[in-house]
Every structure is written in structure tokens, then in C-alpha cells.
Amino acid sequence: MKPFKEIKPIEIEDNPIQLIGQEWMLITAGTPEHFNTMTASWGSMGELWFKPVCFCFVRPQRYTYEFMEKYDVFTLSFFDEKYKPQLNFCGSRSGRETDKAQECGFTPVKAENGSVYFEEARLVLECSKLYFQDMEPANFLDGSIMKNYPKNDFHRMYIGEITRAVRAE
User: Fold this and answer.
1) Three-state SS for 148?
2) Which of 48, 111, 140, 151 is most buried, by CB atoms within 10 Å?
């Protein structure tokens, strides 16, 4: 197994806008025996309630949503550029119909929080859910954002405390 080094969340050197918006991430929830993962390019990292946190967004029709609802923990896995085709695959296929990890050649690893991350990742955030909120159409102050919701399938936002961060050595 590839060695990982635990780091403090404040030691994450990556620019979160680049990391999430351009490089993408896998949101994974469940257990090593039964989990799902999906690619996401919307989210954030920062400080809230005196805790290091991440924000991630999942639409209700996504299979990962069921796992995010059922489990109190999840992971965010970030990869080198060479894995972009696999991340594209994980964002365009449903885990209801295919084993995304197997199809992509990703090796699931049991996280300390009981969830799953992937050995091929270069950075992993283990998170514990603190809060969720459904996106409300009436709260969009910029009406142009509605173009992202032609089916009115608004995301649920999850705020997770980053309880552990590991970086590939």
C-alpha cells in the first residue's frame, strides 16, 4: 500500500479553488463492504464553528446521496492529473449500475473514521457530518444561478468537520 502521512488540516498547501474546481474530488460515503463514490467539482474548505471544515454538495437523485444520508462520516479524495479520466468516469456513471472503483482501478482503503478512500489519491480528508441544508430556490440572490437547476433538482449541502487529513508521501 502507498504510504500516507497524516497532516493537520491547516497544513494543506493546495489552493481549494484549484483543488476542487479544477482538479475535482471524489466524495465517498459508506463502509468498505458497501460504499459509493462520485466526482464533485463544487465545494469549499475553511473554518467554521472553530473547526476545520469542508462543504460538499450532492443532488438527491445521486446514488451517493443515499450513503451521505445513512452514514455520519465521509471522505474527500483528491488525485493527480493523470487520474482525470477516472474522475470523469465516476462523475458520469451511477454506482447503482457499475462498481466505479473496480472500473477505474481504484483500491479502496478503510479510513480511520470507518469510511472509504482510495490508495491512488494524493490527498484525503476524512470528515464527520456537522450540518446539512437543502438549497432553496427563493434564497438565490443571483437569478442566473438557476440555470444550474433546469430540473429543479437542488443540491443538499453537507458541512463536514475535517477530522483527519493524509497526504501521499
Assistant:
1) helix
2) 111
For residue 20, the one-letter residue type is I
Return the exposure string of 73-95: e unless at least 16 CB atoms fall within 10 Å of the residue's CB, then b. Answer: bbbbbbbeeebeebbeebbebeb
Alpha-carbon gap, residue 20 to 12, rounded angstroms: 13
The pLDDT tens digits along the chain (169 residues) read 778 999 999 999 999 999 999 999 999 999 999 999 999 999 999 999 999 999 999 999 999 999 999 999 999 999 999 999 999 999 998 999 999 999 999 999 999 999 999 999 999 999 999 999 999 999 999 999 999 999 999 999 999 999 999 999 8
Do residues 134 and 156 lie in contact, with contact meaning Cβ atoms separated by under 8 Å? yes
**Residue 123 in grid coordinates:** 490527498
pTM: 0.95
Q: Cα separations (Å) of 56 from 53, 63, 98, 120, 133? A: 10, 15, 23, 21, 11
Burial status of residue 14 (CB atoms within 10 A of its CB: 0-12, 13-18, 19 or more): middle
